[in-house]
Design a protein that fits this description.
A hairpin with a 2-residue loop joins β3 and β4. By secondary structure, this protein is α+β, with helices and mostly antiparallel strands. The strands form four sheets. It has a six-stranded mixed sheet with strand order 1-7-8-11-10-9. It contains 19 helices and twelve strands. It folds into two domains: 277 residues, no CATH class; 138 residues, Beta Polymerase, domain 2 (2-Layer Sandwich), CATH 3.30.460. Helix content is 42%, strand content 10%.
């Protein structure tokens, strides 16, 4: 059957099999502890990504005395770290800086490897000592790099690379991409910013506009394609970055009365929650998928639709354009839809088959039109014009080639289209194909996300 992967069968009524979100088990992964103190000392859990330090704290409630949560510390013994796995030159550098009274930490991938009982390929170190103080401590030491200066300490035939700790505001000014990385790391690992970092992110949010568009797309893809999209969108909104990076979506948040720290959900966040259930850091999707979700939602926010129209639309996308069969199946759906969303109309008059087909075709056209709006600098610049206090942004980081690729997801829907197509078979997602942007795989995953958002599995009828 065309839509067997959707858990629907074409009979006199719809039979619901396994809910869509259960077709692929959520991949479990453990976050890496990525900073450790020097040998045999209690260590501070921090985050360091791609050689950039980001200090964060785990989410926890503030106590009755209003004290901020403390850093959680582990000893190397608790983590089972063997000192023999740390190279002698590295141990020498750590020990000497400690004796001088400086704080010093191993950071990055080497900590992950040590915890996993693996021998790291190299060791990165951060210290409270300034570059000139490091140079005074070691005879064979040189400062390298103009934009991001670091120290190279020569121990015998080994070079030990050292970085200095910098205040958040200076670090973000030095490299604006760190602002986006901070959001990504906090969202992915469930951390929250310390007060100084939160303030710096807010104050310097506008500086991300100076980044190369390709770099912005890459950072956005890291946020939205690796299993932490919903949390990333919430953080972008909380810290005033969403109206700079995605003004159209920020306008939607405002129109919904969404506060900066709002814990409620909305349809856009629900769509990305369902995306997060299907992908993970080691099983990402192609950027065309999350861009298609943004365009689809924009179309639905501009013109709310009957839930059956959205169901038929998702079934047609899944099948590669078999519109008639998708409509026939959707007309027999009796399960309740999620009535919380303003983008979905309450059931009204029963639509005829032809009327339903027309509306599905119109929704596909609207999704393509929404994509065009998202790549139109003037339209983007006007998205937040109703809100004079909001920053102005005409940022478009979606390239023409990527936009055309996304458009193909919806192009299969139209009268007379989809005939002779061979539907994608099977329930399981081919993650290699999904990461490469294979069109049938992206359509399949997109359709599952949309369907599960409108018709959540196990939604009780009386909840509507």
């Amino acid at each position: 059957m065309m839509v067997s992967a959707f858990g629907l069968a074409w009979r006199s009524h719809v039979i619901l099999r396994r809910p869509l979100i259960y077709c692929v088990p959520k991949v479990q992964y453990s976050s890496s502890v990525v900073a450790v103190g020097s040998v045999a000392e209690p260590v501070t859990v921090m985050v360091k990504d791609e050689k950039d330090e980001v200090a964060v704290r785990r989410r926890s409630r503030v106590g009755k005395d209003n004290k901020q949560p403390e850093w959680k510390k582990f000893s190397s013994k608790e983590l089972g770290i063997k000192m023999s796995l740390i190279s002698k030159p590295t141990r020498l550098v750590l020990s000497r800086l400690r004796k001088k009274g400086y704080e010093v930490y191993l950071v990055g991938g080497c900590v992950r490897d040590l915890i996993l009982k693996k021998t790291p390929k190299d060791f990165d170190i951060i210290t409270s000592a300034e570059l000139k103080e490091i140079k005074q401590t070691f005879i064979h030491c040189e400062i390298v790099g103009k934009r991001f200066p670091i120290c190279h300490v020569h121990v015998n035939d080994t070079i030990v690379e050292m970085h200095t700790v910098k205040p958040a505001n200076l670090s973000f000014v030095e490299d604006r991409a760190r602002i986006l990385r901070a959001v990504r790391i906090a969202a992915r690992l469930g951390f929250r910013f310390s007060r100084d970092i939160a303030l710096s992110v807010r104050e310097l949010s506008g500086s991300v506009l100076r980044l190369d568009k390709g770099r912005i797309l890459m950072e956005m893809n890291y946020m939205l394609a690796f299993g932490s999209a919903e949390a990333s969108l919430r953080l972008l909104w909380r810290f005033g970055l969403l109206e700079i990076l995605l003004p159209i979506q920020a306008s939607y948040f405002v129109s919904q009365g969404f506060r900066r720290r709002d814990e409620r959900s909305n349809m856009l966040l629900s769509l990305f929650t369902n995306l997060d259930k299907l992908v993970a850091p080691n099983l990402p999707c192609h950027s065309s998928l999350w861009i298609a979700i943004l365009a689809f939602h924009k179309a639905l926010a501009d013109q709310p639709r009957d839930p059956l129209v959205v169901a038929a639309f998702s079934l047609a996308v899944h099948s590669g354009g078999s519109l008639l069969e998708a409509v026939q199946i959707s007309m027999n759906i009796t399960r309740p839809h999620d009535s919380r969303f303003h983008e979905l109309l309450e059931y009204g008059d029963v639509l005829s088959q032809d009327a339903l087909i027309d509306q599905v075709v119109d929704l596909a056209a609207s999704a393509k039109a929404a994509l065009c709006k998202m790549t139109d600098r003037y339209y983007v610049s006007q998205a937040m014009i109703k809100y004079p206090k909001a920053p102005r942004s005409d940022l478009v980081f979606i390239s023409l080639a990527l936009s055309l690729r996304v458009c193909k997801i919806f192009e299969c829907i139209g009268r007379g289209m989809g005939k002779g197509t061979v539907p994608r078979r099977g329930e399981k997602i081919n993650y290699e194909s999904l990461a490469l942007g294979n069109l049938p795989e992206v359509r399949h995953t997109f359709a599952r996300i949309v369907f599960d958002t409108v018709y959540p599995p196990n939604l009780k009828r009386d909840s509507t």
